[in-house]
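User: I'm preparing a small set of examples for a lab meeting where we compare how different chains pack in three dimensions. I only have the primary sequence for this one, and I'd like the structure in token form so I can line it up with the others. Please keep the answer compact; I'll paste it straight into my notes.
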Amino acid sequence: MDHNSAPPAAVLAAFGATGPAVPLSGGQGRARRCGALVLKPVALASETPWRAGVLCHLPDGDGFRVARPVPAADGSWSSGGWEAWRWLPGAADPFRPDEVIRAGAAFHTALAGLPRPRFLDVRNDPWARADRLAFGDSEGGNAGNAVGAGPAGTAEGPGTVLLKPLLAERRPVSAPSQLVHGDLLNNVLFAPDAPPVMIDWALYWRPTAWAAAVVAVDAICWWEAGAPLLERWSRLPEWRQMLLRALVFRIAAHTGPLSGTQEAAYARAVDLVLATAEEPR
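Assistant: Understood. Below is the structure token output for the 281-residue chain.
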């Protein structure tokens, strides 16, 4: 299936979608809005029904709402390689990272206690590999070997130059892991007089502070945030270690050489994260 193409007529019919399939901005540019529905290509067949099963029963919490999955006419959570979700009004605002972190914390509180899904062990996209590297789940004998996901992580590439000091500063962490959203900053929608909406749940099994750290790192790299944002959230457990891992995760996920703009943005973030004080043990 071509994930860049519009859903075929049979898929629209299966979900009862009406109207033209209009591309939505953000993400990887593959989602389409059809009236009251948003259709997205299925990324991992075993993940789609699991995630939908959680979100269709998860109550909206104090401080967040979720976009609900929509089953196909036959009751399944996908059809023809596509899944469907209710469209909710709102817009991402990456200049509001503190509010995004707070909404994410409320969402994670609602998810606490759910078991770790088995499909996480077989997921092998660039982000999954970068996540494992960030937490030391899949490492070679040195930083150059450990990062070999693509040109940005080769021994000669700019990614490794940035990653080596971050990897060298990692220490073991004791914060418990649970289900989290690992890509919050552009996937929390704000609308007037309503709690924020969580969309496009990028599912990871990590400490909740790591998910907040990914927000902070993204805001620093691309949305003009700086050291004050890191200081405001320094009360989170093992904050510096989570920031190190969040930045490794973002850099290592690249599968091609970093552009000059990317390298400069990550270099600035590396300097700020390395300058963050380590929490006393």
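A couple of notes for your slides: Residues 139-157 have pLDDT under 50 and may be disordered. Residues 185 and 218 are 7 Å apart (CA to CA).

User: Perfect, thanks.
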